[in-house]
Amino acid sequence: MTADPHPFDVAIRLSAEGENRYSGNTSAAYANMVGPFGGITCAVLLQAVLAHGRRQGDPIAQTVNFAAPIADGAFEIEAVPVRTNRSTQHWIVQLRQHDAVAATATVALAVRRETWGAPEAVPPSLPAASTLARMPFAGAPAWVRSYDLRFAEGGLPDSFDGREQPHSRSEVWVRDEPPRPLDFPSLAALCDSFFPRIFLRRRTFAPVGTVSLTTFFHADAATLARQSDRHVLGAARALTYSNGFFDQSAEIWGDDGELLASSHQVVYYRE
Q1: Looking at beta carbons, which pairs linking 137-145 to residues 24 or more positions away fall under 8 Å?
Q2: Which of 31, 51, 69, 150 suits a disulfide with 132, CB 3.0-4.6 Å?
Q3: CB-based contacts of 230: which residues, under 8 Å, 6+ apart?
């Protein structure tokens, strides 16, 4: 008997429609308050590159610009390799709906080689994932149910009471739900699985939307394979809020303490 595909794989499934072109559909399992969860959009744009016959190497960087709300339903993606060097390859990707661009991305791939390496960043120290309760998801958007989130610090407030906090730091164990072996598309999505920092800092709900999100992939495919479907450790914070925009930085660590990815995004907010 063939097992049903994981909901994540259904959400990023693409059909080839000719040279550099794909078609896909949004997934109800990754719906947000308006349109799809931003992380699944990052993942499907990356998948268009990874599935391409001219792909060379693995992802090292991706920047996604959310140009317009993405509606539920069908979309088209164009993924074009614009430059291939000996070690790196550069792509431009567009997601279109109704003959209009809804999201764009640049993706850099690289052929990794054995070199000297050393970490400088230090992972946060958290209790084991098994000792923390899973975040309840009653009333949350559908995409939250697609993740097992276990917060050590900085979960959503119990109530949006407007009592401003001194920081918006979060530390959390997270994995796909149901569990799924980690790969580059799911890692790209995980980098956007942190709630908007303004919700934590001001303890109030505000209309928000990511404008641009850049992810750096520090791990290779073998490292992700070793992580398999176990929880990864996430940490997120903001640097500043000003004139309707705030930033949000995040790190994703393997459960062995290896940094897998880091990201930075700028988010629009309205009072």
Answers
A1: 141/31, 141/32, 141/33, 141/37, 142/28, 142/29, 142/30, 142/31, 142/32, 143/29, 143/30, 143/31, 143/32, 143/36, 143/37, 143/39, 143/40, 145/29, 145/177
A2: 150
A3: 175, 179, 255
User: Whose CA is closest to 63, among 12, 95, 109, 107?
Assistant: 107
Q: Categorize the per-residue pLDDT at 2 as very low, low, confident or very high, splitting at 50, 70 and 90.
A: low
Rounded Cα distance between 41 and 111, Å, is 25
Give the separation between CA 222 and CA 47, rounded to whole angstroms. Answer: 18
Query: Average per-residue pLDDT in the chain?
Result: 96
Burial of residue 154 (number of CB atoms within 10 Å: 0-12, 13-18, 19+): buried
Which of 2-11, 41-50, 92-101, 178-187 has the weakest average pLDDT? Answer: 2-11
Cβ contact 32:143 at 8 Å: yes
Mark 207-223 as b/e (b = at least 16 C-beta within 10 Å).
ebbbeebbbbbbbeeeb
Tens-place pLDDT, residues 35-57: 999 999 999 999 999 999 999 99
CA dihedral sign, ordered 116, 120, 125, 126: negative
Q: Which amino acid belongs to residue 251?
A: E
What is the rounded CA–CA span in Å between residue 64 and residue 188? Answer: 11
- What is the structure's pLDDT at 138? 86
Q: How far apart are CA 63 and CA 217, in angstroms?
A: 11
Q: What is the pLDDT of residues 234-244, one digit of tens each?
A: 999 999 999 99
Strands 74-84 and 88-97: antiparallel
Peptide bond into 196 cis (omega under 30): no
